[in-house]
Amino acid sequence: MPKHKTNFTKRYAGKSGIGELMDDLGKAMSGNDMLMLGGGNPASIPEVNKIWRDRLAQMVDNGTEVDNALGNYDTPQGNKLFISELADFLNRHFKFGITEKNIAVTNGSQTAIFNLLNILGGTGQDGVLRKILFPIVPEYIGYADQHLEPEAFLALRPVIELIGDRRFKYRIDYNALDEVNEPLGALCVSRPTNPTGNVLTDDEINYLHQFCKKRGVSLIIDNAYGAPFPQILFQDIKPIWDEDIILSMSLSKVGLPSTRTGIIVAKEEIITALSSVNAITSLSTGSLGQVITHPLLKDDTLINISRNIIKPFYEEKSLKALSWIDSFFEGINYRAHVSEGALFIWIWLPDLEISSIELYNILKGKGVLIIPGSYFFFGLQKPWEHSDKCIRITYSQNEDVVEKGIKIIGDTLKNL
Length: 416
Ligand SMILES: Cc1ncc(COP(=O)(O)O)c(C=O)c1O
What we know:
The protein is of the alpha/beta class. The chain is built from 13 helices and 16 strands.
């Protein structure tokens, strides 16, 4: 580490929530005995893996296709063939009315969102700080440290709707939203939401959309788990897009996280800005994921495996995880967020007397990795007790790992 830390070093080369998460994830995936209920790695689905293997074999047989995928830099906007196929696909299925100029590909959607948040929010040349508003938290831990100016984030608490004895759902607090009068650069939501598994309703999205139109800002919808792919989404909602919406998509959760393929659908000026940043920071985007999937967009394989294999696979896993929670947590005061999509179950423990980070450490000592809830409430202007009484668990790993992990969490909470 250099002796004199720059602001950038201080902000990005130290510890961060996402750094800790990825570190634990990496260690757990590389062979130690931890029960991994912490990370966001997609599950290994044999039928889907076979589709990637067959496609790679086809590329190798073809020769030129694999040579081009490995040996050429694509443009900073992405692979031309993939972009054109994706524009056709989105117009054919969802009538987006877009052209190739509305799509940019990035090295993972994580990078895309880092760039978008910093392009749209922050101090302008006029000296005005325009904030990125998270209209509902808890939100994705991966956004928490993404802005070069930490004070550019603003977040609102949700309304909590209690459902039955053991469930709840977060909803957007429209009153709090309407009271926001600070200058804004953009709104950002993940839908389905990481960490809660919430899916904002169509009404909520319409409300946010209208709010953005009134305020002249963009609504970023992070669709990393949504439709049309990977469709880890258990509600019947359709993707929407217009010039006020920036739709972020990813190939990670269809089972290709290591190809680092993120996709942004947005108005032309945003795509141009993203491509410029991409050229400066990365030169171009990795081609492999784009070359593997472009024929699968054309013949609808990608949308079909998402609907018919990936979605039911995760839905069944989510129901099982909830049923294990309900049985192993018997006697504990808890509520689980309704599971409407994504890979996670979010558990609220109203009587928890230690912090969620202390609980994380106790569980880590017992061989179970979870993520403490407090990381997911960045941007709030006042502390909120609720934020330290929740945990996130991932249900994408093998059933015996998830079941064992949930049992240890339940037993630990009973002893506490
Ligand atoms: C909500 C959300 N957005 C974005 C990402 C980033 O995904 P990637 O960079 O692999 O596309 C993740 C990863 O888990 C996520 O959960």
